[in-house]
Structure formats: structure tokens, C-alpha cells
Amino acid sequence: MAKSWHHLPEALRAETRSVSRAVRRARAGPGRERDLVAQALKAALAALVAWVVASRVLHAPMAFIAPWVAVALVRATVYQSLARSLEQLAAIALGTTLATAAGMALDDPTVAMVLVLPVTLLVGNWRKLGDQGIYGATAALFTLTAGDPGVGQAVARLLESLLGAAVGVAVNMLVRPPVYLRDGRASLRTALDAAAECLARVARGLAGPWDHGDARAWDQQARRVGELADEAQDALARTEESARLNPVARRRTRLLRRQGPYAHTTYVLEELVRSTRDLTRTLREAADGGSGRPRPEEDVAMHYARLLGRLATAVTAFGHVVTEDSGAARSRLRRAVEDAGAAHEELRRLLAGRGAADPEWMGLHGSLLVDAHRAVRQLLQEPPHHDDRP
């Protein structure tokens, strides 16, 4: 405990710095932090509107239910708001109905609670209700603890819930409906830059002395690139979801579907990840003295380092095309891919005729050539032009 208190001031300072950076990023320009601020303000607005309508206009008996539902339904995307509203209303209807029936039959809220809560909590785990299942149990609690349950009260609660859901979905749809074009592009660029840095790091290492520890570090970095590629896939899926039912997103997101330019970029990224993982795994096995694989000769390693360095430059140029899509960026990509292709051809000529009688030698250098060639071949296919600027 003493140790925890000793580190508390530094932890608080670190958290304060993190919050300050987030605030500065939110003020500086569009980004995740500003999106979170907007979503929080929209949720507050939805709760306020639902409360005013329920309490001042309709004079609902349990007006707080409407803002309680509304604030929970201002989600990251319009599609999520609508889908979660249906799940939440189903859960609330179930909990309210069961609690009303049990309360009227038993005339004892405590006994009714003992019977109803386990059922609503178990049903709340039903996959069809998603993460909204808990609202069934809370609705049952409201019903059983708010007084004598009756059909009229149950109907009123359901109508108040419906009002809150309608307000929450409407606010999310009409007030700055979220579109995450920026997130998808940024995630793709981050993953591509990480792939380029991994290739460049291997190139720098092969140009000098390297050992099994170096090769293991390269392989770990390649694994991290794979994780970033998965995150980019998730970000693109979120981007596509943000276009569903979004009244302002159709023009800006029509090319983000799986048939659009980002589908091509995602495919290239997957192939780059696979090639990078394969080549770092091959080098790690070659560095392991017990694997039986030979190490590349010094001149071969130098040529391969040159190839990987040019390939890293081409991947970086590809990333610029993803985010800029300008004629200059595409010209740089073509030149970089041509340079990488020339380096690959030089290495192929160097290896021609060498080690033909040694299967292990052929396996090593054949794998390295194939992995690099696969990456160069993918980069030869430029991304289609896109016109999805927010």
C-alpha cells in the first residue's frame, strides 16, 4: 500500500499530462478527441430534449426514463444508435412485462424481485440483445420498486422508453452525424508506415553485423505490423458502418466499400504483412545456428539490404498515395517501385547459378527472393483514385 501511495503523485502527473494532450488535440483540429467531445455534447443534448418533452410537454409519470434511454443511444455511428435502440427497447419491454406480471400476481415486490431478476439477468446475456441486455433487469427493478405495478404504468414506461430512443437516434442522425473517413485513412497510413519502418530496419541490420537477437527483434516488429493492419481493418469496418443510414455520408463514403480504393489498399497491406512476416521468419531461422539453414553470404546480404531499403521507400510512397492521392505522390510511388524492381533483378542475377546443388541454400535465398518479389508486385498495382475528402 505504501508503495502505491509513493507512486501516486507521478501517476497523477502522468494522467494530467495525458488529459492535457487530449484537450490540445481536440482544440487543434479534427481527430478522435474532438469526436469524443462531440459525442458527449450530443448525448447531453439528447438527454435534455428527452427530459423536456417527457416532463414538460407530455407530463410523463416517470419522465426520467426518457433521458436515461436517450443518453445511452447516442453512439459512435448512426447505425449503432438504431440497432442498439431496437435491442434496448426489446430488453426494457421484456423486463417491464415480466416485472409487471409478477408484481400483480404476487402482490409482494420482494418476492417478485427474487423471481424476476434472475430471469431477466440470464436473458440479458442473449446474443440477440447485444450489450443492451442489462436494461431488462434495470427496467424490472424500476417497475417493482416504483410502486404498485399495473398495466397502465407498464405502458407508460414503454412509451417513455420509446420516446427516449427516438430522441437519441434522431439527435445522432441529425446533429453532426459521425463519419469516420479520417480514422480509416489514418489507420491505413499508420500500418503502412510501420511496414516501411520494419523493412528499413531489417535493411539497416543486414548492411552490418547481425545475429539471432537482431532477427528476433525484426520478427517481433513484423508481428506488430500485423496487429496494426488488423486495427486498420477494424477502422475501415467502422468507417463503412458510419455510412449506413447516415443522411450526409453517402457522397463521401460511397468509394469506401469493399469494392473501392481502400479495399485495394487493404489487400496490398495484407500481402505486405504476409511478405514481411515471411522474410523476417526466414532470417530468424537463418540466424539460428541450430536450424540448419545457412546464413546469406555478405554480398547477398548487402544486395538484399539494398532491395529492402528501396522496398521500404516504395511502401512509404504507397502510404502517401493513400492519404494524398496526388499526381506527385503517384509519380514518387512509380519511381520507388521501379527502383525496388531493379534491385530485385540485380539480386536475382547475383544468385543465378549459385548454390544449385545445396537444397538448404536454395530454400533460403529462394524464400527471400519470393517474399521480396511478392511485395514489389503488389506495389506495382497503384490504388484507384478516390474522392472522399470530408
TrEMBL record:
<dbReference type="InterPro" id="IPR049453">
    <property type="entry name" value="Memb_transporter_dom"/>
</dbReference>
<comment type="similarity">
    <text>Belongs to the YccS/YhfK family.</text>
</comment>
<keyword id="KW-1133">Transmembrane helix</keyword>
<keyword id="KW-0812">Transmembrane</keyword>
<feature type="domain" description="Integral membrane bound transporter">
    <location>
        <begin position="50"/>
        <end position="171"/>
    </location>
</feature>
<keyword id="KW-1003">Cell membrane</keyword>
<keyword id="KW-0472">Membrane</keyword>
<protein>
    <submittedName>
        <fullName>Aromatic acid exporter family protein</fullName>
    </submittedName>
</protein>
<dbReference type="Pfam" id="PF13515">
    <property type="entry name" value="FUSC_2"/>
</dbReference>
